[in-house]
Amino acid sequence: MSDRPTLKEWPPGSIQGFDVRTGDLKWVFHTIPQAGQFGEDTWENGSNLYTGNANVWSTLSGDDALGHVYLATTAPTNDYWGGERLGDNLFSQSIIAVDVETGERVWHFQAIHHGVWDWDFPTAPTLMDITVDGREVQALAQVSKQGFTYVFDRATGEPVWPIEERPVPPSDVPGEVLAPTQPHPTKPPPFEYQGVTEDLLIDFTPELRAEAVEILQQYAHGGMFTPQTLYDADGTHGTLQVPGSGGGANWSGSGADPETGFLYVPSRSGLTRMVLVEGKPSYTNLRYVPNGKLGPESLHPDRPPAVTGPQGLPLIKPPYSRLTAYDMHRGEIAWQTPTGAGSDRIRNHPALAGLDLPPLGGQMTTSGPLITKTLVMLGLGPAGSGDSAQLVAYDKATGAPLAQVALPSRPLGTPMTYAIDGRQFIVLTLQGAQMVALALPLAP
Fold this sequence. Notes:
This protein is mainly β and 444 residues long. The protein has two helices and 26 strands. The strands form nine sheets. It has a four-stranded antiparallel beta sheet, with no helix packed on it. The protein has a four-stranded antiparallel beta sheet with strand order 13-14-18-19, with no helix packed on it. Strands 20-21-22-23 form a four-stranded antiparallel beta sheet, with no helix packed on it. The radius of gyration is 22 Å and the shape is globular.
């Protein structure tokens, strides 16, 4: 179901619970509150009666002992323009714990009020038990497209570390009213770059940086939650956003190590450009629509393109993707490592000739991390045309890459491992309806 429709009226993303034995519908949780329901007052002018989405885009998590199911929801329609749905818009872009038997809300937390950045929660929450300041906590860790990790007591919904409402800029788009503040976790630190400023620009050489600064002036830019802008507003061609609409974190989610209390998060910086143009009545009943083309002549809401930097290089500095290990007992980053050496197109670029380049990252994954006694295994897509996909093994204590195996296509599912007759196997699914099984060498 499109989250970027051309109509303000769209089906809502209600969650349904069924009896697995009979197939009977047991309950419905309305992620967009209906008349008289809790949260209705966060939708102005009756917009809850026609707005759609706010669905669970990925999968659910559940705690059998508590009897809770955890929902991580997306933006409401349209996810770049909210002038037709003023208010905070509960329960969009929220984490909601519901009773598995009744569907009643136990607790909730809204991570983005009145979202217009396409920062849906792209993956299920990770449930893990941690010890914080000597206190045992049944925790829920939710990674996000915007590079935050939100951590709660999954029984009560209380944040494990404070989450602060901080002021954010208002919108200049006519009819748009953004929330004056947005939640910012104080711990753990973000796992990705956030916002676009000159400090983030490519800096391999002074010449490349100077060109990048010139390019940056063509776009609206700033810190987290910089508002969307109209094409050619104040001479700019849209708003630059990092992490981009694809994350940050995405389908790959995160993986927990129950032995160490570490949480592993694959991510990307994913610079994208957000553009709004005036809607044409023959095409849409929205005043403004997202536009991924170069100008207002086209109104097809394509996914916004990446921005080209100096001489065709990226506009921002590396790493372009990474793997982060959190020590969740302390709420701190234990280590980070780029995922992949980077595209040959970038590494062999004439403007970078003679430079000793570090690993650049850029190998995005839709495969979750597999965690073993000593390793984190992660399937990585190709960094560029002609590059191969890979399965990489990292030292789970330090992040050092230890080994890698080429794969025939992009991995999609989280790897699984098992042993038969003392020999260990790793199996993962790949793009193109493929499955590959790898065997570890026998011990000498």
